[in-house]
Design brief:
disordered C terminus; single chain; 19 helices; two-stranded antiparallel sheet; globular; mainly alpha
Length: 449
């Protein structure tokens, strides 16, 4: 049964498209600018360099989002994907930056992108490593990993002095309640625009309470031209190796995100589609490095927007790409969006990210229930949660181990894939006291039915 309001190739009216595109931008913008801000702060870069990194990240994200949605030849999955700078690269970027500066980060990113570009041509084979039970685990881990992010937003932002303040929690709950009410009882565009309407009302409440900080708007430039190769590039072998490893981890996470996207858009995720999508990630990251931006990857949080609103139009998200590009060219626009208080985003984000978790749980409910599958699901989710809840677990292990298993999504995916390959297919247990039970079947036979 089709539950989508707009399918992948549908073109909603312009006003509707603009509202829906704004929702995706609001969901992604914080994550896009966070990486250059974090890297810049830790490396103690001058303010003008941090601004240049942020602008390049927005511009690069916008252009690559359009390519991913619309496609250019063999590049681009042609599904509603929002691209952005990924935290999977932060550890590698910081370690490279301390020794080789921003030129080393960008050069290593450019050279390392070859790993993803080459890897994309093996996606039809890699797709075979992701049968239904493995895909269900990965989608579930994406949801489990994102929900704590929304909780931190709702509480006021991780590390904030007023973290968990009653005002923050009330604002987040009000926004959440508005989104739920609009999705449940709204019709057409009202239901589809529930997130942006909820955020707008939450923002208005915060304005009335004096909780909106406009200092970033006052400091932002109205217009800024892109500055390709502004920082220069260097190619340290150790940095290229670190970035190459980060790209491998990102390929695993991106594959999981595409699987979740396929479920949300009711698209069968074939190996050829994965190839085009991952190739766009790799080529897009290479392009972003020339702009002076960190590497790109497909954002999982926007899958939640699609699941919640039922809007799967790739043309909507292509407009989101245009908005992001404009935010890179007109920093003041991005600065205005950044003024949205964290609790407002948290209320909407909790709903969006929980929808991804719900999709994962529904997928888990459709797998064959036998001992082997139960072990794969239990162990992989348990390992994924272990590093998500207690990241210090890996603190004393070598850096490359942290790079691979530092994310709950990549850990869950890797463990699920390995267990699916290692655990033998056993006959389904048949008990003598069961009535009308068919003859024993191998699990692989059941999967083929």
């Amino acid at each position: 049964m089709n539950n989508l309001l707009y399918k992948v190739d549908d073109r909603p009216p312009l006003i509707t498209t603009t509202l829906l595109a704004a929702q995706h931008m609001l969901a992604a913008l914080g994550g896009i600018i966070a990486v250059p801000l974090v890297v810049g702060a830790i490396l103690k870069l001058p303010a003008d360099q941090v601004v240049a990194l942020v602008n390049a990240a927005l511009l690069g994200s916008g252009i690559v989002t359009i390519i991913q949605c619309k496609g250019i030849g063999p590049i681009g999955i042609r599904l509603p994907c929002v691209m952005g700078t990924s935290f999977a690269f932060v550890g590698a970027a910081i370690s490279i930056g301390f020794e080789h500066g921003v030129p080393g980060i960008l050069g290593s990113s450019l050279a390392g992108s070859v790993v993803m570009i080459v890897g994309s041509f093996f996606m039809p084979q890699i797709r075979k490593l992701f049968p239904h039970q493995v895909t269900a685990v990965v989608v579930t881990m994406i949801g489990l990993s994102l929900v704590p992010v929304a909780v931190d937003w709702a509480a006021g932002g991780k590390g904030a002095a007023d973290y968990g303040a009653p005002t923050n929690l009330v604002i987040a709950l009000v926004v959440l309640a508005i989104v739920v009410a609009l999705v449940q009882f709204g019709k057409g565009i009202i239901s589809a625009s529930a997130i942006v309407i909820g955020i707008a009302i939450g923002y208005a409440i915060c304005l009335g309470l004096g909780l909106v900080d406009f200092s970033s708007v006052h400091r932002a430039a109205v217009f800024a031209l892109p500055q390709p190769l502004h920082f220069g590039m260097s190619f340290p072998p150790s940095g290229i190796l670190a970035m190459g490893l980060a790209y491998i981890v990102t390929m695993v996470e991106t594959t999981g995100t595409f699987m979740a996207l396929g479920a949300a858009t009711e698209t069968k995720m074939r190996g050829t589609l994965l190839k085009r999508g991952v190739l766009c990630d790799g080529v897009g990251s290479a392009f972003a490095s020339t702009l002076g931006a960190p590497p790109m990857s497909t954002f999982a949080q926007n899958v939640g927007v699609i699941s919640l609103t039922g809007v799967a139009s790739r043309h909507v998200v292509a407009l989101t790409g245009l908005m992001l590009a404009l935010a890179g060219l007109f920093p003041v626009l991005g600065a205005v969006v950044v003024t949205i208080p964290q609790p407002v985003l948290g209320g909407a984000g909790l709903m969006m990210f929980a929808m991804i978790l719900t999709a994962g749980v529904q997928m888990l409910g459709k797998v064959e229930h036998d001992k082997r599958t139960g072990l794969i699901i239990a162990v992989s989710i348990g390992c994924g949660l272990a590093v998500s809840v207690r990241p210090e677990l890996l603190a004393k292990l070598p850096a490359f181990v942290n790079e691979i298993f530092g994310s709950g999504i990549s850990t869950g995916a890797i463990v699920a894939v390995l267990l699916n390959l290692v655990l033998p297919n056993r006959p389904v247990e048949i008990h003598d006291d069961e009535e009308d039970v068919p003859q024993p079947l191998l699990v692989k036979d059941l999967e083929a039915v």
